């Protein structure tokens, strides 16, 4: 009986607070101690500018957490804590995706990422739009609805497209702007492109709980004259529905980022539709996703099919049309699909024909992932193919590897043996053995070369200028433009590719491309990168904040005996990526890509996300 009572008293707590945090590490320690002791689950994001938290647990524990925060620091005294009762999360796919089967506490640069690239003028959140209570927000809409459509007021939805497809504000005489973005970091670009629709208007913004409007409204106001009148719904849709249980001007359901998935009003009307049959439907529980961008799509229960391919409306607009042409490649049947752009989410989609497959095949592997492989420094496509033969064999059911040579051909060089002077000998050194004949050597290539590289190829053996520098890879950044041009041509002529795998210097090249993923859209579309024994180049593109491209980092641990790329260097590269979409595999096998368990299983798990 007491167990049932505990389950009935379960709740979810959402809150954020923009404030300067004097001691971030001390706050991190507090959250770890407090949340763990109260058995809370969910996501805690901390930065020097504030906190953003969504956690679940027993109501009494959540109330204790709030009390502890207020006692910890006066910064939390005016925080809007949104506490709601709900059913206990089940350890299923939805709960795992939403992070409600564990506790994740991380320090981040930004609580929410307004732009995936540095903004010319970063917004000051202290200049955010004026807060309107749910009552004032409703009153403003009511008054505008009774005036002419040219009243000068516009509603701006700061959420992602898939959220708006199941619920939004609807006021007949008020213009509502839906940016239809896949992710919040695309919103700043939409604002830049639609300034004429906002300038001179009274802008009323809303989002789920308020935090996205803080940064977005500050960004709009930063544009200066004509953009001063920006207002935001305090507490977001959640507070509005609490004030207006029948929904008020909000129609449908409020999408939430926890195991509840969505929260509705007493109005049972459904505004979402199934992407296949167009019947009324607004349940994302199935976690159906667009094949290209991986955003959630609405698929009703009768239309759900785990082997069906969906194309969301935004991908269709980008020219990723439905195709059912069958290709025969390596003796297997595949569907011809355009290059995939893995940048996040959208909604309403259409369905591709069911892919044929042999008996007993896993439907998730009916189309293999095409991965472009970039070799390391002073290697070539042939040697890298040989080095990865075991990996290719173990992944043959889900991947197809494509290998290419880097564009910079390197001269053949050798290091003569060094000898200590011997007073008993007439000479202080012995003659070295000649290098092997050139006809026995295959050409070697690189993605980056040193500044003094003269472009000469291997026409003859050359003696090294001096001892080999084990850290030479950190100084080589020239030749990038030529390498990028080559890869653009490969994508155009040999693509599409689902991902890029790079080893050592090839990983550095792949990392740089992933950092420029938004800029390269249309020329080089891919879903993920796999970076093996990688390192970060000292280039500006690698310093633009967390890289949002999904990534798998594979490198030797501190005892892994990788004498080429230090463990800490690969760790530093991994730290540049958004931790929410990156994974790390540390192994003990040196300067290689491991293919034994448990490492190969972790590699398969990562790749399987994109099937």
UniProtKB/TrEMBL annotation:
Molecular function GO terms recorded: zinc ion binding
Keyword Ion transport: no
UniProt-listed SUPFAM superfamilies: alpha/beta-Hydrolases, FYVE/PHD zinc finger, Rhodanese/Cell cycle control phosphatase
InterPro entries named in the record: AB_hydrolase_fold, FSH-like_dom, Rhodanese-like_dom, Rhodanese-like_dom_sf, Rhodanese_C, TrhO, TRHO_N, Znf_FYVE_PHD
Family matches, as PROSITE patterns: RHODANESE_3
Keywords: Metal-binding, Zinc, Zinc-finger
Start and end residues of each Rhodanese domain: 149-249
Keyword Flavoprotein included in the entry's annotation: no
Gene3D superfamilies assigned: 3.30.70.100, alpha/beta hydrolase, Rhodanese-like domain
Top-level division of the source organism's lineage: Eukaryota
Family annotation (Pfam families): FSH1, Rhodanese, Rhodanese_C, UPF0176_N
SMART domains membership: RHOD
Name by which UniProt lists this protein: Rhodanese domain-containing protein
